[in-house]
Amino acid sequence: MWWLCVALISMSGLTAVMAGTDLVINEVLYDPDGADAGHEFVELINPSAVDAQLDGVQLFFINGADPSSPQLLWQGGAGEILGPGAFFVLGGTQVSGRDRTFGQSLQNGDEALQLMRSGRRIDAVAWGQPEPGLGEGSPATGQPGQSIGRVPDGQDSGDNASDFRALDVVTPGQANLRAQDFRLLSWWPEPAFSELPTDRLLHIEFTASGWQPLQEALLTLDQQSRQLRVEAGGTVRVEFTVECASGQTVFVPHIDTGDGARALGRLTLACGAGSLVFTEIQPRPAEGEPEWVELLNRGPGQLRLDGWGMRDSGGRLRYLAADRVLQAGERHVVSADAARLRSIYPAIGAAVSETQGGWPALNDTAAPGAVHADSLYLVHPDGAVVDLVIWSADLIEARGRPLQRGRIVQGQQSLWLPALGSASPGKAAADEDRIWPGYGLACRPDPFDPAQDELELLVTGAFIDAQAAIYDLRGDLVCPVELLGAGEHLAGRWDGRDVRQKPVPSGAYVVVVRARAPDGGVTRLRHIVGLGRR
Fold first, then answer.
1. E strand or H helix at 343
2. How far from each other are the two terminal CA atoms of the chain, in whole angstroms?
3. Which residues span the domain enclosing 476?
4. Closest C-alpha to 355, from 389, 312, 419
5. Strand pairing partners for 495?
6. In the structure, what pLDDT confidence band is assigned to residue 243 with cuts at 50, 70 and 90?
7. What sign for the dihedral angle of Cα 132, 138, 143, 147?
8. Does 107 lie in the same domain as 13?
């Protein structure tokens, strides 16, 4: 930041502060996100190698509608010095780390700022389309919520459009952009969620946000490292295999561009049923009934839904009711049409709300070539997927018959099946507390390690014939499984390899059995299993 110095600076120091090395306006936030009042700021920098005296320096705001009446924002005091390379921040009451406070609005139109020393203009920056001469060269260009800043810091070619860049991250009192820097764009685990401890593939995407043409850095995460090398403004995607234990595991990527490692965010992965879970889903409602989803707070205390969301396999995140607080053991129903659902189920046993920004439409039929009709993800406020339901069209039976979750048992995969009774939004299902017997399909051991065991598939029922296959969570075929036996008992085994006899990675896989009954009807049985390699 800046500091005060009461000692007189030498004449040699004064002569060093000359055109091109005097104070300049380095960053301006004139249109913050939300309300402008209190959040706007102007950052000055001393780009020279010697102290800069602030006494006699004034900063003026120029309203493009009346440029003949400049408004004084600030003036330096006697004995104040800004050190070499230091920043000085003038901002509203909400700008943290500011050195001086101003209350003048910078406005978002065709405006300018001018920096004067003893009546002589030493710098100026304009934005919008003000009249010529209010800034330097062509005006800088910004967007709502972004600041405009010099890149690199302190660079002054005499043209605002060339020197200033719109910044996604405002940096009052800090460098606008490093020479070499990387910014986290997105990340996603594969699979997105697992109820069983397993290794997962973590995809992370970065952008090279520094100003040097070539960006290089060392990225480390979970004692693994990757060397990054990409042109400025380009993107790079890296992958890490990480081990996730039960509960939530936080991974912190660190980037080192040669000046020390720094964290680039917190990536949270969840494993196993958490406090908030799905318990009943209606993807194929009866005629006139809206789709709905039932949630349960199975934790020991209150749970706020603010920041929680859900999405289907192809949609964007839809947030839950921000003002809702669930007590321990309380259920909550989210619907595409809350009022209509209440009218259909007047004795509904819980509060009903709608998602913000639209409903994540739940498909009840699979796209051509796909195994699954749809999936529904429950997303924690920190971005972690904490519950996941995947269903096929064959799993959904008659209209109006929802899918219900069996008893949640720690260390076991949950199984979803059509409700044996009627729909019960907001209430515990009559058969919810039992452990599903497998509906004709059992898989053991679950989870399994191919180095020690093979997965055994047991199919029971009066079937004429049956075929089994293993799929990954994307719905892609891993391999078929031969079923052997006679009568109502068939069995098969899977060794954890794909159709090319290559070992598949640790993760969750879907066992699907397609069975034909004596009356010609076809039933598809489904079970999700965990594969973990030590």
1. helix 338-344
2. 52
3. 441-531
4. 312
5. none
6. confident
7. negative
8. yes
Least confident of 413-417, 424-428, 451-455: 413-417
Domain closes at, from 210, 245, 271: 271
Asked if pLDDT for residue 462 goes beyond 50, the answer is yes
The identity of residue 58, as a single letter, is Q
Number of Cβ within 10 Å of residue 522's Cβ equals 10
Number of structural domains (the chain) is 4
pLDDT tens for 330-355 read: 999 999 999 999 999 998 989 999 99
Non-local (6+) Cβ contacts of 297 within 8 A are 275, 276, 303, 326, 327, 328, 329, 330, 331, 332
Residue 517 belongs to some domain of the structure:
yes
> Within this chain, do residues 135 and 44 fall inside the same structural domain, yes or no?
yes
What is the three-class DSSP state of 339?
Answer: helix
* pLDDT higher at 174 or 17: 174
Mean pLDDT, all residues of the chain:
85
pLDDT given at position 373? 84
Determine the pLDDT at residue 474: 73
Query: Do 207 and 186 have their domain in common?
Result: yes
11, 12, 14, 18: CA torsion to nearest 10: 140
pLDDT on residue 296: 95
**Rounded to the nearest 5°, which phi and psi values hold at 27?**
-155, 140
Q: Smallest Cα–Cα separation from 375: which of 355, 393, 389, 395? A: 389
CA 139 to CA 41: how far, in whole Å? 18
Give this prediction's pTM: 0.64
Residues 362 and 459 in one domain: no
CB burial readout 198-217, b (16+ within 10 A) else e: bbbebebebbbbbbbeebeb
Task: Let me know whether 233 and 377 are in one domain.
Answer: no
Using alpha carbons, select from 27, 56, 32 the residue that is nearest to residue 42.
Answer: 27
Share of the chain above pLDDT 70, in %: 89
Q: Would you list the DSSP string of 62-104?
A: E-TT-TTS-EEEEEB-TTEEE-TT-EEEEE-TT-TT-SEE---
Number of Cβ atoms within 10 Å of the Cβ of 297: 20
> Mean pLDDT over residues 14-31, rounded?
69
Q: Would residue 175 count as lying in a domain? A: no
Most confident of the ranges 242-251, 437-446, 514-523:
242-251
Q: Cβ atoms within 10 A of the Cβ of 329, count?
A: 11
**Domain CATH number, residue 323:** 2.60.40.1260
